[in-house]
């Protein structure tokens, strides 16, 4: 193994001192910090009227200090679909209701995994991966669909936010440690008794504790609520004591939502026109797995454009940490000039492969700007950080940024061709390990 020698240090210093750019960069960084020192091209947010195929202008919600961007993005997508279907003035869905049952189901999914792997050694990699993150606030589209299909949806007024549900760090931390201790109890009991049925009875009691903890933190979800929908024509639809399941089945287009297809555009151990699932990733035990139809980037973008033209927004997953001008609301490759550090950035797949980039955020596309030559310039994105961030809650996502940092999009099957749908439905999916980059959850 090579070690750092005095000769190495002399060479390092010589190279540093003989590059005039280093002194200027040093002065800037110690005074202004790294980000301000690396600022590059500053784009201005284009006029809203320059975006085509825009959705109805609705308020921007704030996920606060929670990891629920995926739920907020999905609920906003459903909000636009619902308003279009019912000519409603506006309608907000309860993110708390979905998050409650998502965490409950994830806890059960975790404990079921512990029982299924009860005989593996403590240092098994799959087991260690699960113990690192027993539950997370974060998620994916398939997990959202699993919850609403089983539990339905609520309007926001029927299960509101509270101080704890808007700041979930401590709750997730305590719940995770609770589940780790439950895992220890289950595995220890099996060593002593070799009785799986006894272990499962203990699991049932443990889930009672989980439900109690979530209810104390977030409030107990209602079984019924009174529905009110205000329409554009001044009419109001009202229904007393409706269940969340009946509301979802009768007032939302279930087929459109549940049959939407997650499209990925990734090259790390994934090939175009094939389907992939992530091992041990899910929430509802009997629900569907996280599954992707992997396409070429241009095919995914064309599907996004087609869906926008039909009047529907597009949920998408990306790496939102790179190239973000938070003040102007711009996503662009030239926001920061990393070449000032004389560091050559890797390509998209290698950034994923080596952990420089990851799928960590979900938002919604609501419009697009197209040049006179019919080329896509940028996309209008609605975020979930309130109207104080970006351009009143919106972002201008340059198309060149999408090419590098968007990894998936949710497309209604009407806007995919028959061959794509057939591959998604009939091809035997390739199983990727839980630590694959597409196994990351958006938060």
Structural class: alpha+beta
Calculate Rg over CA atoms: 24 Å
Name of the top-level CATH class: Alpha Beta
Helix fraction bin: 40-55%
Largest sheet: 11 strands, mixed
Mean pLDDT: 94
Shape: globular
| Low-pLDDT regions | none
CATH superfamily: Cysteine proteinases
Distance between the termini: 40 Å
Strands across the major sheet, in which order?
A: 7-8-11-10-9-6-12-3-5-4-13
Instruction: Please tally the helical runs, counting DSSP H or I stretches of 4 or more residues.
Output: 15
Residue share in β-strands? 5-15%
Q: How many β strands by DSSP?
A: 13
> Can you tell me the CATH topology?
Cathepsin B, Chain A
CATH architectural designation = Alpha-Beta Complex
> In the residues, how many domains can be counted?
1
Secondary-structure element series: HHHHHHHHHEEHHEEEHEEEHEEEHEHE
